[in-house]
Amino acid sequence: MPAKTFAIANQKGGVGKTTTAINLAAALAQAGLPTLLVDLDPQGNATSALGHEKVEQGSILAAVHDSEPLAGKVIQTRIANLSLIPGETDLAMLEAELTKKEHYLHQFKKHLSPLQEGGAFKVLVLDCPPSLGLICMNALAASDSYIVPMQCEYLAMEGLGQILNVARGLKEAGANPGLDLGGIVLTMYDLRTNLSRQVEAEVRKHLADKVFKTVIPRTVRLGEAPSFGQTIFEYDPFGPASAAYNALAKELCARFSLQA
Hints:
alpha/beta, Rossmann fold
């Protein structure tokens, strides 16, 4: 059975997108699901947050050049069941490279397909850059579903509409007819503030079943973990953020019938 592929996407920076990609992937791996995290951000934050170096020609870029299979870029992390295709700063050139390709929206799908179909992984998690450019659109075209981390602020609601419209456009244009909104994750949630509760109520009112029940709390530990090259499960295993990402992984598995 092909691996289920999720793009973690939001064009707004600072909303917990990479934090969600890393820790959701780690939680799925800990649940016994062989998971591949693909860092598509030129900043390479998912790579460094897992304690790995950004290596030249270590990313998906070389595969898009058709110089070598993408499988050769997969590295095993220290976390059981979690593999990584690193990011690198050269990914900044990828937008220009993609425009030169005939089927420019399907380049990631072309190169990820052997990994999706090969049987080594049950889940692929694609960490998109904070933009709606060709890298993000390629990731959406290669995915079964996309997950939108959304900070609990009103301005974030405007950004939510933009990513939903782009994904809808790709689906209607035939770039990925099966693309589905897998869910919205409310991040940086502070129960002490009226704002978090108001934003949550507004999003649930309009998108109801698409919003995950699990919310990710605002914690200092979650912000500190990447600087130590660790997931939240390594840095603060008994804290509220670890519990939240474990709960999110369980909810995702139930929603998409994922079993170890």
